[in-house]
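# nightly structure sweep
# worker-07 picked up a monomer target from the shared queue
# config: single-sequence mode, recycle default, output format = structure tokens
# input follows
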Amino acid sequence: MRKSLKRLGAVATAVTLAAGLTASAATAATVSVTYGLLLSATFEGTLQGDGNTFLVTGVQDFATIAGLPAASLTFVTSYDALGFAVPGALPTISLDGSSLDILACEDATCEGGFLFAVNSVASATIGGDIFARLTSGTTTPTAFVPSAYSATLNEAAPVPLPAGLPLLLAGIGGLALLRRRTRR
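# output follows
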């Protein structure tokens, strides 16, 4: 009985260690996005563990909106969070275009910039998926056309997930406890 409990403990510890070491890590990267002739931009951020969702932290300079160079788009947020008061919503895009929730502007007044609301609270509220240009206080929304959207992942570099650390420590602690028990 004791021997089988020790084996069970060793197996459980090994599984915990393996889970801690193989937890999907987020990846720092950039994503180049084009949306027909209306947008060309490179987003900075983190590719999430699903390999499709990209958490946007910024827009690199040299973006073009409707073929014209855009000023630096330094204000980046979730359209759901800003326009529809969704707590905890973060600016995200998906590589396949299935879910987009981002508002990028020159500043917090959003006199110039763009937004995507695709498969989000905003798009459900306004009755459809949209892309919109923001210029001088005017919003020019158009229905989102999936075939016009293209995203390419660039420069991926692994970023360790802090969530994997507790699993790793639990596995090491389990091995230490198992070793201590076998010495007695």
